[in-house]
C-alpha cells in the first residue's frame, strides 16, 4: 500500500507561530525557525553572548516553545554570527539626576560582565563622559579612509566618544537641529571595533538630540533615571512618553540619589525622599531596575574619572545589580 502523502507544510506559518511565542528580543535573534513532524528546529544568532548567555537563551527558547501543542521537541542551533550592534539610550526629564554617572558606571559594570561596550556622549551641549571616563583632552583618530572617527579606549575597558573630544568646550552651544543630528551621527557611525552594545548618555529633556536619535538611530531600548522627587518623576514620565511614541521599549526606571549614607556615622537619610521611583514605576507598569544611593564617594569618583563600578567597594554593588538586569534584558527581552 502507498504511504499517505506527508501533511503539507507552511514555513511562513511555522515561523510566525514560533516568533509569536518568543519575546521580541529573542525573536529578533532568529535566523530560521521551522516545525518538521512536531520538532521545532531553531537557528538563532548568539555571537555576542557569553557561554552563560547562550545557555540562558537556549533555556528561554525551549521553555517558550515546549508548551505549544504543535511542538513535541525543540532543537536549537546557535550561530557564532555577530548581531547588529545595539543601542540603549539612557534618558531623564531633568538634568543633574545622574544620567551621565549611571551611563558610565553601567558601561563599566557591563564590561566587567564580559560585554563589549561603548559609551556615546549624546549631551552635545554639556558633555561629561570625557571626564567620567578619564579621556579628557584625548582626540579621536580617524579611519584610514578619513570617513569615520575611531572610538577612544578608556581605562576601564569601555570605548567612548563625545563631542567634548572633538570641539572646544562651549563651541557646540550655538548648534541647533540639523547640526546636532549630524554631530550625533558622527559619534554613532564611528568605528567602534568589536563593540556589541552602545549606551547613549542623552541630554535632559525631549530636545533635538532625542528627536534625531528616534529618527536616525532608533535605540533598541531606553533606561530612564530619576531622583525620588515628584518633579523629577513627572519629567521622567514625559521622557518615557517620547520613547513610547517612537516605539522604543522602556527597559526600566532607575532611582538615583536614593538615600544619603553618612560617611561619619553610617546613618541613612533621604534628602530627596526614597522609594518614590519604585512606586511610580509600578503605577506606570514600567520595570524598576534598582536604586543607587547618594554617596560622597560616588560624586568624588565621578570628578576624578574613576567610576565606582570599576572597583569592589560598596558603591559598585548597585551598578553591578542594574547591569545584570540590563544584560538579561539584552539576552532575553525580559529583566
Ligand atoms: N548616586 C550619586 N551619589 C553622589 N553623587 C552623584 C550620584 N549620582 C550623580 N551624582 C553627582 O551629581 C552630579 C550630576 O550627575 P550627572 O551624572 O552629571 O547628572 P546628569 O547627567 O543627569 O545631568 C554630578 O556631580 C555627579 O557626580
Ligand atoms: Mg549628563
Please supply descriptive tags for the structure shown above:
single chain, 335 residues, alpha/beta, GMP Synthetase, Chain A, domain 3, Rossmann fold, nine-stranded mixed sheet, three-stranded mixed sheet, binds adenosine-5'-diphosphate, binds magnesium ion
Topology diagram in text:
Blueprint: H1 11-21, H2 24-27, E1 30-36, E2 39-45, H3 51-65, E3 73-79, E4 86-91, H4 99-112, E5 117-121, H5 129-132, E6 152-153, E7 159-162, H6 177-188, E8 197-201, H7 208-216, E9 221-226, H8 230-245, E10 250-261, E11 268-269, H9 276-284, E12 288-294, H10 296-304, H11 316-332
Parallel strand pairs: 2-3, 4-8, 4-9, 5-7, 5-8, 9-10, 10-12
Antiparallel strand pairs: 1-2, 6-7, 10-11
Tell me what you see in this structure.
This protein has 335 residues and is of the alpha/beta class. The chain folds into two domains: 66 residues, Fe-S cluster assembly (FSCA) (GMP Synthetase, Chain A, domain 3), CATH 3.30.300; 247 residues, P-loop containing nucleotide triphosphate hydrolases (Rossmann fold, 3-Layer(aba) Sandwich), CATH 3.40.50. Strands 4, 5, 6, 7, 8, 9, 10, 11 and 12 form a nine-stranded mixed β-sheet that branches. The protein has a three-stranded mixed β-sheet with strand order 1-2-3. The longest helix has 17 residues. The radius of gyration is 22 Å and the shape is globular. The model has no long low-confidence stretch (mean pLDDT 88).
Amino acid at each position: 500500500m502507498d504511504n499517505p502523502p506527508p501533511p503539507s507544510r507552511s514555513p511562513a506559518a511555522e515561523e510566525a507561530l514560533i516568533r509569536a511565542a518568543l519575546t521580541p528580543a529573542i525573536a529578533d535573534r532568529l535566523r530560521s525557525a521551522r516545525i518538521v513532524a512536531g520538532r521545532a528546529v531553531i537557528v538563532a544568532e548568539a555571537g555576542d553572548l557569553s557561554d552563560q548567555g547562550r545557555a540562558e537563551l537556549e533555556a528561554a527558547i525551549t521553555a517558550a516553545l515546549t508548551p505549544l501543542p504543535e511542538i513535541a521537541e525543540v532543537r536549537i542551533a546557535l550561530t557564532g554570527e555577530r548581531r547588529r550592534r545595539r543601542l540603549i539610550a539612557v534618558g531623564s526629564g531633568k538634568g543633574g539626576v545622574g544620567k551621565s554617572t549611571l551611563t558610565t558606571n553601567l558601561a563599566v559594570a557591563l564590561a566587567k560582565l564580559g560585554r563589549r561596550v561603548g559609551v556615546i556622549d549624546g549631551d552635545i551641549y554639556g558633555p561629561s563622559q570625557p571626564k567620567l571616563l578619564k579621556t579628557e583632552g584625548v582626540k579621536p583618530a580617524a579611519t584610514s579612509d578619513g570617513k569615520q572617527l575611531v572610538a577612544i579606549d578608556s581605562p576601564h575597558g569601555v570605548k567612548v566618544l563625545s563631542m567634548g573630544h572633538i570641539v572646544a568646550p562651549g563651541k557646540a552651544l550655538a548648534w541647533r537641529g540639523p547640526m546636532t543630528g549630524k554631530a550625533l551621527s558622527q559619534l554613532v557611525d564611528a568605528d567602534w571595533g568589536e563593540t556589541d552594545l552602545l549606551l547613549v548618555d542623552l541630554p535632559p529633556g525631549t530636545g533635538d538630540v532625542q528627536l534625531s536619535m528616534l529618527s536616525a538611530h532608533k535605540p533598541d531600548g531606553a533606561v530612564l533615571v530619576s531622583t525620588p522627587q515628584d518633579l523629577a518623576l513627572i519629567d521622567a514620565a514625559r521622557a518615557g512618553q517620547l520613547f513610547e511614541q517612537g516605539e522604543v521599549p522602556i527597559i526600566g526606571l532607575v532611582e538615583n540619589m536614593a538615600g544619603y549614607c553618612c560617611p561619619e556615622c553610617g546613618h541613612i537619610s533621604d534628602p530627596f525622599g526614597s522609594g518614590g521611583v519604585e512606586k511610580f514605576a509600578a503605577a506606570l507598569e514600567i520595570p524598576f531596575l534598582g536604586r543607587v544611593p547618594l554617596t560622597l564617594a560616588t560624586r568624588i569618583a565621578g570628578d576624578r574619572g574613576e567610576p565606582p563600578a570599576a572597583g569592589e567597594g560598596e558603591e559598585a554593588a548597585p551598578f553591578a545589580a542594574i547591569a545584570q538586569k540590563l544584560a538579561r534584558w539584552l539576552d532575553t527581552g525580559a529583566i
